[in-house]
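Troubleshooting entry. The earlier prediction with 2-acetamido-2-deoxy-beta-D-glucopyranose gave an output that would not parse, so I re-checked the input for stray whitespace and re-submitted. Clean input:
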Amino acid sequence: MMNLRVLFLALLLLASPLLQVARCQSDAEDHSSLVDDIIGEHSDDSVEEDDQDLDMNLTSAPGVETVCVFPKNSAKLVPAGEETELLVGLKNDGKTSVGVMGIRASVHLPYDHKLLVQNLTMLRFNNASIPTSLQATFPYIFAVSQYLQPGAFDLVGYVIYDVEGKPYQSVFYNGTIEVVESGGLLSGESVFLITLGIGLLLLLGLWAYSQVQRLTKVNNWISFFFPVNHLYS
Ligand SMILES: *[C@@H]1O[C@H](CO)[C@@H](O)[C@H](O)[C@H]1NC(C)=O
Ligand SMILES: *[C@@H]1O[C@H](CO)[C@@H](O)[C@H](O)[C@H]1NC(C)=O
Ligand SMILES: *[C@@H]1O[C@H](CO)[C@@H](O)[C@H](O)[C@H]1NC(C)=O
Ligand SMILES: *[C@@H]1O[C@H](CO)[C@@H](O)[C@H](O)[C@H]1NC(C)=O
């Protein structure tokens, strides 16, 4: 029994630095990707400065209707950090053709639209023309930050277009999306649980092994002193 306790302590001691290493590693990864993200955001900002012509306080043009579809995703699930696609349909019931210049979207807190969580990437088109009484569909692929907590957020999507040389914009979507944790990545907790599980299995194996050894030893002694017993066993 003493042996077992010593063994258990040794196992814990062995396992604890391992756990800490696992923790540190995931921490380090987090930080490096956080830096990447910040750098990424800065480069996004510089891109957005070119897009300032598409970033104005615009109204929608009469006769332009929009629809928005999340293909094969009626629950509007958006895995954090992964690309999600939605389709933006534009119908031109106006008198002149419409030139589509871009699509942009932002993520907001559902209970306060003034609180902007993230500006999503702008998708630019080279004035894609839609003649009168026709419609066109544009795919918009976006990824919300991998650091968003899972839960409900509001997505507001705009399509910016040009009618007779004047820019307009329409809101094609203003509603809830459900941000979910992206699969595949091991969290710190699961690493901890897996290590703990392996440690317990190892301990169980060692215990079983020591029991078998003890029993065979006892049996050997018994059969040594009482050879008759051997016949019964
Ligand atoms: C945007 O336009 C509306 C009216 O079209 C105006 O009331 C509002 O103040 C404008 N907002 C900004 C930020 O310019
Ligand atoms: C975009 O297309 C519309 C309609 O086809 C046209 O009136 C407008 O001049 C074009 N704008 C640019 C910047 O090319
Ligand atoms: C998002 O874009 C808006 C303008 O479209 C800008 O005013 C705001 O500062 C941007 N926010 C972030 C966090 O980049
Ligand atoms: C989106 O909807 C919310 C609430 O329904 C509203 O407060 C907000 O002004 C809307 N945003 C736009 C751009 O229409």
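This one parsed fine. Residues 188-227 form one domain.
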